[in-house]
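Quick one - inputs below.
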Amino acid sequence: MLRLEKRPSPSRTWAWATPVLAVVLTMIAGGIMFAALGKDPVEAIRTIFWDPLFNPQFASYSRPQLLVKAGPLILIAVGLSLGFRAGIWNIGAEGQYIMGAIFAAGVGLALYPVETRWVFPLMVVAGIFGGWLWAMIPAVLKTRFNTNEILVSLLLVYVAQNILASMSLGLLRNPEGGGFPGSRNLSQIPAMANPELIAGTGMHWGVVAAFVVVIAAYVLLQRHILGYHIKLAGQAPRAARFAGVNPTRLTVLCMGISGALAGMAGMFEVTGPAGQISIDFNTGYGFTAIIVAFLGRLNPIGILLAGLLMALTYIGGELASFMLSLPSAAIQAFQGMLLFFLLAVDLLTNYRIRLKKREIA
Amino acid sequence: MQRRTILKGGAALGFATMMGGKLAMAQVLEKVKAGFIYVGPIGDGGWTFQHHQGALAVQEQFGDKVEIVWQENVPEGADAERALTQMALSGCNIIFTTSFGYMDPTNAVAAKFPDVKFEHATGYKRDSANVSTYNARFYEGRAVQGHIAGKMTKSNKIGYIGSFPIPEVIMGINSYYLHAKKVNPAVELSVVWAFTWFDPAKEADAAKALIDQGVDVIASHTDSTAPLAEAAKTGGKVIGFGQASDMSEYKPSPRVSSIIDNWAPYYIKRVGALLDGTYAQVDVWEGIAGGEVLIGEITDAVPADVKAEAEAMRDAIGAGTYHPFTGPINKQDGSVWLADGAVAPDGDLLGMNFYVEGIVGDIPS
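Output:
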């Protein structure tokens, strides 16, 4: 009979092996699902994981797109991981992402048609501020009134979505758009655009920011006292209090950083790939980033890799969906499996499986 | 005014590029790979389902001379541009983008792939010679629905579930209201905006809100069958219409009739033109006359005389003897839009951003 036995300390080997194992299991289970749908499973898996990188027809286009898609995921996930490590659960990054985009676009469009190079940095600051502000609501409510930050941050996503719809139809609507919802196309206004920095690479300011943030978070966690406090608060809350960690300050800081980074991601997206504020501007980066954070083991370098992998399943999933006529729901199920298997095999980090004979009572 | 001049300018430019492009483009293709980009799932039972039926009809018509590929649930934004680019890279010769929100991505990608033909449904931008636009005069079907609604309502309250406040939807609302009002001067119209094309939960909420207000005839401009499912729960008190697809599973009531989008003839024509080398840029807006808009069977839940009147209106529109927007029609603010006997110019309809006189409430802005 199988029995679970708690490890004295989490296994380092398994901590790194579980994401790989989860990917392999996802491929197997996904392959079975694709076969059940009457598609060649090997071809489907190859289309998702191989073609975006190496297909001679697509790869030159898909590879840069990986960065475009991974950039916001990494940026948001790194921010979330700091809070998650400290046991502070910001589930509302999607809302903070939206508010960052709205604040940035609002500042930019208020200045329109001013054409100086200071507009863009100003918009970055506004985006960061918007995301931070939206994250401060659950943070302050938690520290002041002890509300649950999971619920408050999540529900604020829906508030943000309604503000987004109202902005697209009202305040930020393109006055030259013939009555159609949506703002001016920011990516076509030179002072506000976030273009590809080197043509054909997909590299825009948001991707650069994502790389910088990964390094900064790594240094913070390894070298800085705040990083130490974050880790301590998550692992041993009581010990952290004795060590002089102020939980209120930590909550405000972690929520603030994750909100600011999500807002920044929204800013780079609205001025770059998305181009404008529109009713369905948000496509779920804030929620997917939660998967990315865990897939990357809440470690900045891990998140970098996880973000790229997640982007691969998106781009590859799109390819598979039209090349093999796979229903889009099958692709979503495939991505869902990844988190499912990850959480399932994560058990192996803290427990080991022992074979044991049933003892007679 | 400004917008109309832009449209005119665009049309002139489009015509010029068409003439220039025609000579270069007249080539015969042995085999055509046709791509379709859908905003919802092919199983939505409405808008996307009908486009997919059109795609399947193309396959049926041309057999192995055509390969069709499609991608469903493509968001209207940055992701659409990638989906389009990947389709073009995969060797599609022609790509149909089947939702209004794909307008900018379609034109952006078309500029990068001059050899691939792009066909955008319900849009008005044709920035390069390889972009055509096509649409259907759904407001003609709305007139028939309005007539039935005006006759059938007992509470004198009729409802409309709007998707987005764009001209396409506003002209549907106006047509529906005008024809209900014509046969029932006491009728009042409530509009609920769902701000989505496809979201069964939101569509159901919108239908519930209308029913709570006492509305007993609901027309919808969204893609799913959810509003009819809500109407079905009222035990026959509330009726509605199939939207985009026949939605015949709700016959004979609550679904008393429907507007069916019939894209197959257009898709077959365009892919066929690529195969025989007669393809040229177009801007098509057909209605009941061209067979793009079909009126689904009017069921026995509607009295025979009302049914006969509705069918007569359908035939008159089809024959070109009646235009649903014929003056006198005033705007909501009381100013004159169309003088007695005047017929709405297409430019006015395509840029429509006002309610007609009698509708209460504002268009969200």
